[in-house]
Amino acid sequence: MKEFNIFRHATHRITEQELKKLATAHGKSVAEMRRDITHAIKDLQYTQKEIRHIISQNKYCVLPDHSAGIGRYGAGDGLSRFFLCHDNGKAAKQARRRDSALVTGFGPTNSPTAGTLSVIFRILEIQRRTGFYTHIIISDLGAFNSRKKPLSSLYGNARRFVQFIKKLGFDESRGEIRTHAHHDFLKAFALSSSVLTIKDFLHNEEATEEMYKRLNLQGNDFSVMVDKTFTVTDILLPILRDGARTVIVVAGLEEHYYPKLARIAVERLRNTGGGLKEMIAPEASVCAFYGRLIEGLFPYVKMSKSIPESSINIGEPEAEIRRKILTSEARNEHVILQMMELASDWDGEKRKRAAAAFSKAQKADTAPWNSFKQEYLRFILKVKKLWDETESCLLSDAEMKRELFPGGK
Q1: Integer Cα distance of 197 and 194 in angstroms
Q2: CA distance 330 to 15
Q3: Residue 310 gets which letter from DSSP?
Q4: Phi and psi at residue 104, to the nearest 5°
Q5: Contact indicator for 200, 194 with CB cutoff of 8 Å
Q6: Residues in Cβ contact with 329 at an 8 Å cutoff, skipping those fewer than 6 apart
Q7: What CATH number does the domain containing 104 carry?
Q8: Alpha-carbon separation of residue 48 from 52, 132, 202, 299, 341 (angstroms)
């Protein structure tokens, strides 16, 4: 497999001046910051190595690959601009609208980061261009199990995500946005969990899982397995409930084991008696496209909702977003370009002009690049306004309980 660098941060040595500035910005001593960065660089190097290993070991196809597609979507550079590799993308190219489904999901641990926005914009574009029935899952109960966050916060944010994605243009006549508090999902969860084992999960974990453990952000071992089973069920629901023949998952490569586990579950359900075999269409298959990563603000691996310092997210104050985009550290300028390329609805020509301006800025001609940053800031602030309008979706703890258990006394 051809060698490629995913994280530029891992290839540039940090200077003492940068170290001191970061320590001041994070309210830490230089020694503490040095230790954090040492861990972060190891995370970067480990994750890049792990991503290469995942692609090689599983024989995923790196894009561009003209045999792959998502129905009609993917002509020219439509796939390779946004996706790193695919699993079973040839079957996805042949998928038919009437018996196929798109699946993706988001954890409502915080307001959307640029990384989250990149997937939202892509799934909306694919839905619009293919007409495939689209499932977007906001994993409120899943995130409650896998992340150390209050239930009321996750539940309220999940409601906000649903409204926000609708505001961005989700076509409800061709899809559904749901949370894990959903009767059909819970039925499918019982069927899915019946064929999965602890051993299945021990052999599959996220490339960034060690980082989350080190930062004390992850739930206990059993609850993390519950969340993983939830996510596998998200993929299986269109097959179990709707009789889908082809399910196409759009996700990050660090989540690649979910389609793998879903495929294992499909095979086991297909070979199990007692009425389970009849739940699965004989030709049902799972495909996946894994998106390009937006690198985290130095020194983090990727933008994460769970780590505010790693990201630019639209829940931050306008002044903070403005500062991060317009006056970013030189080391983070390529991250802003990645945001323009992936976390926007800009067309291909505009993205190319932004990349050309970035290249000129590396040779001291900064005016075109600064102009693009101003334009991107205006775009992000418009998106932020849509998010801010969903604040009314937040609930008190008592209101949350009544909504979660409407049949309660």
Answers
A1: 8
A2: 12
A3: G
A4: -150, 170
A5: no
A6: 18, 21, 298
A7: 3.40.50.620
A8: 6, 32, 21, 14, 21
Kindly tell me the burial class for residue 42, based on how many C-beta atoms sit within 10 Å of its own C-beta (0-12, 13-18, 19 or more): middle
Provide the pLDDT for residue 273. Answer: 81
Residue with tokens 């949370």: 179
d(CA 175, CA 184): 15
Instruction: Let me know: does 337 contact 358? Beta carbons within 8 Å.
Output: yes
Residue 82 and residue 128: Cα distance in Å, rounded? 16
pLDDT exceeds 70 at position 197: yes
Q: What is the DSSP letter of 111?
A: S
- CA-closest candidate to residue 94, choices 124, 130, 62: 130
- Helices 367-388 and 318-326, axial angle in degrees (round to 10): 160
Q: What share of the chain is helix, strand, coil (3-state, %, to 5)?
A: 55, 10, 30
Task: Say how many C-beta atoms besides its own lie within 10 A of residue 354's C-beta.
Answer: 24
Contacts of 46 (CB under 8 A, 6+ apart): 207, 210
Do 340 and 376 contact (CB within 8 A), yes or no? yes
In-domain check, residue 46:
no
Location of structure tokens 């317009």: 326
The answer to whether residue 236 sits within a structural domain is yes
Separation CA 148–CA 378 (nearest Å)? 33
Examine residue 99 and state whether it is found in any structural domain, yes or no.
yes
Contact partners, residue 348, CB within 8 Å, separation at least 6: 77, 81
* Residues of the domain holding 197: 60-291
d(C-alpha 103, C-alpha 237), whole Å: 10
Rounded to an integer, the average pLDDT of 249-272 is 93
What number is the average pLDDT over the span 385-406?
92
7 against 102, higher pLDDT: 102
Overall domain count for the chain: 1
The pLDDT-based confidence of 27 (bands split at 50, 70, 90) is: confident
Reduced to 3 states, what is the DSSP secondary structure of residue 295?
A: strand
Average pLDDT, the chain: 87
Does 43 score more than 70 pLDDT?
A: no
Is residue 10, in this structure, part of any structural domain at all? no
